[in-house]
Amino acid sequence: MADHQEASVTLPSDPASVSAARRYVSNVLADWGLPGDTDTADTLRLIVSELATNAVQHTLGLSPTFTVDLELERDEQLRIGVTDSHPRYPKRLPAAVQQDNGRGMVIIRCLTAECGGKLSVSPTPEGGKTVWISLPWFARVNGHNATPHRPC
């Protein structure tokens, strides 16, 4: 496999785009060797769903699109980022017992940490931001499991 692989898709900031983002990431990861029927693939789909949902719901209509970027470095590290053009960084919202939202970043951070990864946010030159997750690559390489720091 190549030392560096990238894939990217830009979608409208619409609730229907969340499932499109999830499918896109799932297909790219399968092309890169991660079977779709694994716990890791399920976890990554959930993370992407949460990131895309945040990009749609919390940009207050100020970001007409969002972009999902995937990067795989030397079959060792996977990075997935979701970029929107809204300048406000994500923050943990107070979540009352009756509240149905406000927990997305907590979910993303916990799932990423369980997989041995980390979450970060970086500004874009245009004034928006990218929320990144970075974690060890778990796909089978030449019939052998890659060695993640922790199973995901």
TrEMBL record:
UniProt keyword annotations, A-Z: ATP-binding, Kinase, Nucleotide-binding, Serine/threonine-protein kinase, Transferase
InterPro entries on file: Anti-sigma-factor_SerPK, HATPase_C_sf, HATPase_dom
GO molecular function, one term: ATP binding
Signal peptide: none
Recorded coiled-coil stretches: none
SUPFAM superfamilies for the chain: ATPase domain of HSP90 chaperone/DNA topoisomerase II/histidine kinase
Ranges for domain Histidine kinase/HSP90-like ATPase: 11-133
Pfam family, one: HATPase_c_2
Protein name: ATP-binding protein
Source species taxonomy: Bacteria, Bacillati, Actinomycetota, Actinomycetes, Kitasatosporales
